[in-house]
Amino acid sequence: MGKGNKEGTSKQFRWTKPMEHICLEILAEETQKGNKPSNTFKAVSINRVVEAIFEKFQVQCDAKHVENHLRTVKKQWQIICTIRGESGFGWDDNMKMITCDRATYDATVTVHKKYEPFLNKSIDHYDEMALVVGKDMATGSFARTFVDIDLDDDN
Question: Bridge-partner residues for 98, per DSSP?
């Protein structure tokens, strides 16, 4: 939980699974309402999370804690997208889980320890993460090669 004095000036804030669930649930709703005009949320959205955390857990949470946690979630999402894009990995949409065989798992975890929490385990709040931070990441879907570009002399 939060450390520091009672006025909410804590330097460190510990996110529990239930807190993260509420945070992502609220921010997913806010995204659907259009309160995320670019890649950042409006202050009202962040404040909804702050108020919900305090109301539910009686823990002082500041807007900066929510924003910092969003950076953590973005990093996790980036890892998930990287793994899903690599050869040798499957996806179970029902379980929201990246799948791989034992040999691939062992080889991957040896090289990329940070991949371990996302392999052969259901990813908590996957759908909410996709809404909240999924669109912020570059996917390469608009990337084009010179073959794709029409080189007309009329231009």
Answer: 91, 119
| pLDDT, tens only, 118-146 | 999 999 999 999 999 986 544 444 444 44
Our measurement of the distance from residue 155's CA atom to the centroid of its chain's CA atoms, rounded to an integer in Å, reads 42
Of 32, 33, 71, 30, the closest CA to residue 47 belongs to 30
Instruction: Write out pLDDT tens, residues 34-56.
Output: 999 888 899 999 999 999 999 99
Q: Where are the alpha helices (DSSP H) in 6-151?
A: 17-33, 43-57, 63-85, 102-111, 126-132
**Are the C-beta atoms of 77 and 61 separated by less than 8 Å?**
no
Q: Are residues 13 and 50 in the same domain?
A: yes
Name the domain count of the chain.
Answer: 2
